[in-house]
Amino acid sequence: MFNNEGERKPMAFLELIHVKKAFGALSVVEDFSVHIEKGEFISFLGPSGCGKTTVLRMIAGFETPTAGTLTIAGKDQRPLKPNQRNIGMVFQAYALFPNMTVHDNVAFGLKVAGMAKPEIDKRVKEMLALIKLDQLASRFPYQMSGGQQQRVALARAIAVKPQVLLLDEPLSALDAKIRVSLREEIRAIQQQLGITTVFVTHDQEEALSISDRIVVMNAGRADQIGTPFEIYNTPATRFVASFVGTLNLIEGRVVDPDANRIMIGDRDITLKHSVTAFKPGDKVTLALRPEAGSLTESAKGDTALTGEITSVHFLGSVIRTRMNVDGNTISFDMFNNPHHMPPTVGERVTLRFKAADLLLLPQ
Ligand SMILES: Nc1ncnc2c1ncn2[C@@H]1O[C@H](COP(=O)(O)OP(=O)(O)OP(=O)(O)O)[C@@H](O)[C@H]1O
Ligand SMILES: [Mg+2]
Questions:
Q1: CA pair distance 17, 49, nearest whole angstrom
Q2: Fewer CB within 10 Å of terminal CB in the chain, N or C?
Q3: What is the predicted pLDDT for the residue at 85?
Q4: Which CATH superfamily is domain 14-238 in?
């Protein structure tokens, strides 16, 4: 790998380079490359069927790439069978051995590895303390909640001290509250152990909240790889912009490309982005985050759009409102203020925001 300066870049810990996977004529993963650092927590985020599990299964050795390379710590993994790779995996569905106690489930990989019993018992104890289930060592899976079972599955996966931990939507079968507390627990354990982790999810909030970096996947490709801040604030493609967060897409028309001036409806707006590549009259698509706008007169925003409120949803701390501006539906959020009534449907309002908050999406 060479960076922009042409120097040789040190190899990342887990590398997938130009990886492809086809099942017969069906191409599922296309030219997928990612460089994951040691100790990093990276999420694969994308809609159902985009190839997340397939990439994970290739890292684990359950599928063979049709093309491309796959290395861990510089070692080519492709010739290795799953049991020859040093990888821990947790699946979406609870995959504990139903006829074994918690202790025996966690001990399973250690036994297979030929560890002596006193050492196994010591390690299992450590693992159960880590997931705060030391009291439940003799329970069977059917005697535990879904959240507890997934914590045992996590303990089983990390007991063997894998080089890489793969988590395939481990929280999706749990209810919302447990999901949030368990994802924080997973992140804390991952940081404590410094274990390189790939976490698969189609929940954008989950990915944004716990990842060092996110790979946004779209139809077998990595559309963008970046920190949660980068992915949310500077989406590289229209797909990323609309998949990550709730985004308003607004059609505009270029008026004066050299001055970065466009029209939205009858409003003349000077963008912070360059539109010099466009001709006068060209259509452009702009994106605006729902939290970027405000109805207050005193708002610092230098750009204003006027329209009619079409819906108001009271969500508690936040009120999500929609308005119609020349055929564009714009959704925006305001914080609840018990001393100030939210707008009502049909009201004409002016939404203010900073021109810099208008993202110009690749056309
Ligand atoms: N063994 C297989 N044979 C044929 N097609 C497969 C096979 N495994 C997966 N696919 C197809 O590959 C595509 C990607 O599947 P994959 O399971 O990787 O998606 P995913 O992103 O994990 O989706 P989800 O979020 O629903 O779990 C799907 O269209 C799926 O039907
Ligand atoms: Mg999947």
A1: 21
A2: C
A3: 93
A4: P-loop containing nucleotide triphosphate hydrolases (3.40.50.300)
